[in-house]
Write a structure and sequence with these properties.
Largest sheet: 5 strands, antiparallel
CATH superfamily of the largest domain: ATP-grasp fold, B domain
Distance between the termini: 16 Å
Number of helices: 8
CATH class of the largest domain: Alpha Beta
Number of domains: 3
Helix content: 25-40%
Bound molecules: adenosine-5'-diphosphate, magnesium ion
Amino acid sequence: MTVTRVALVTSEAGAGLDEDLAPLVTALAGCGLTAEPVVWGGGRAAWERFDLAVVRSTWDYVARLDEFLGWADATARVTRLWNPAPLIRWNSDKHYLRELARHGVPVTPTRFLEPGSAFDPAELDGPHGVVVKPTVSAAALDTARYEAGRSGEAARHARALLERGRGVMVQPYLPRITEGERALVLIGGAFSHAVRKGPVLTEPGLVDDDRFPHPDVVPHRPTGAEIRTALAALAAVPGPRPPLFARVDLVLDDRGEPLVLELELVEPNLFLDTDPRSPARFAEAVAALARP
Ligand SMILES: Nc1ncnc2c1ncn2[C@@H]1O[C@H](COP(=O)(O)OP(=O)(O)O)[C@@H](O)[C@H]1O
Ligand SMILES: [Mg+2]
């Protein structure tokens, strides 16, 4: 019998922290697949040894974006890579929110500032303040919230990012995030499970790259509107097949309607420990791709 080998792609930092890896290895074994975590980058791994590589906890890619996208393209030439390399490229830059909006998906109102273009600092304000963040980011890196009337500080933050050649997003601070950011996990295009987590930007005016990005996680039963919004976001994703995995992060607006804060197709934490059936669900979707 031939062995089907799966690489669960991680990073030096992710390997010890990614709590989804162990249950996935076990669930994949239950489907007859041999899986192992493999660190991306540095040209060390022989990816052609694997029937499939599944990107999981490549959490260091933000600072190495070009290298990471090059790795994805190269890896996709020698094995099957999921999510696919073009989707990884598309999703690594949050300009994709515009495309979701064009498809009618309710997204967090976002103003994009591009390096080299001017903006009026006074406009970086709102009744509940604003959030300033880079268009390529994860784990709230280089991200801060500014209270109403602090547009000068918000503009200083935006300018510092722009001067480093980084695209910037400015959003109204969504105060109902205190009711929980919803994270809906979709596997093979279908809803699997969901969690709620606490607000991350609890201290206004502070950039803190050591923040824990997932505070106070609890299982969440999504409303119909939340599931519809997550599926609408997924339907707007380019490509012929649904992503293997997706996480859609939602925050409620003033009227209680869900807005997409983020659609994660690269390396989302999937909180598999919050739903005992989810590792098997994921493993079955992986098995279908590894042995088409
Ligand atoms: N517009 C916003 N309103 C309220 N909180 C926000 C907003 N944008 C970001 N945050 C907080 O900052 C965290 C990180 O921002 P996010 O957009 O998820 O980017 P990433 O996870 O890629 O760093 C979120 O989980 C949320 O707690
Ligand atoms: Mg996030």
